[in-house]
Amino acid sequence: MDELRKIDLNLLLALHALLSEKHVTRAALRLHRSQPAVSHALAQLRKHFDDPLLVRQGGGMVLTARALSLAQPLQDALSNLDSLLATPLFDPARAQRRFRLSLSDYASRIILPHLLRHLRQVAPGVDLAISQASRETMLAQLLDGELDLALGLFPELPQDITVQPLFADRFISVADRQVLPASGGMALEDWLARPHVLMAMRPDAFDEIERALAARGLQRRIALALPHWSAAVEVLAGTDLILTVASRAVGSLRQHRTLRQFTPPLAIPSFDYQQAWHNRKDTDPGHRWLRETVWACSQPGR
Coiled-coil region(s) at which residues (predicted)? Predict the structure, then answer.
């Protein structure tokens, strides 16, 4: 390291050109530098190595024994440096890698089938480890390096976390049609009077619906709080419960003939579902590929 500090990398590049070309003018052309600049570099190199390196013989110049001994180690060193500085590549077809993701069964139903089919076709050596957690826990796990990617809604972001929108969605309400007005809709007063189902990882979660209610000084009664999207729809039939949830979480209600969806009588902003990651992953080619793949597999119409 001490010897490396004594010499400029540009001098090593000049030395490589001089040893390869055995000619100052041709070395200058190769380096896109002026001839005087390369002559000056040669003088510095001669002083550093205490050797002439290039000597005149006949009509040209030849390498000294010291220069000959430097040629191959210099070539190896520059090749290794090129490899070190080159942008690493990620070949999904050859990759053997495991990514850790956290997402709800909402995202699992929408994205995972497309994602897994794609991975099995183009990246059979890529494995996924899926977990489920609250948005606060997911962000903490990203910060701690326990996760590669988290999918959800992240209205408040800590420093060093980046998010990308995947798709837009809106909220709908779902209830048993037998206890709905004939019009199929519901007035806000009646909607608030009914017991509700809360979809969240924690029963005390303050989600987008609660935010919309709080903005108007309103409250609803949560009769059931649970983290399972699929079960939330199943429990509605034959009850007076109302579920207000992202529309893509429900999908088609054809298999639930007793249920009906309707627009909530409360202005709840639509939202962008997001993927989040730590900034330390920004330049990781494999992680960049994963983010691009998740985005592509989450687009409507896939």
Answer: none
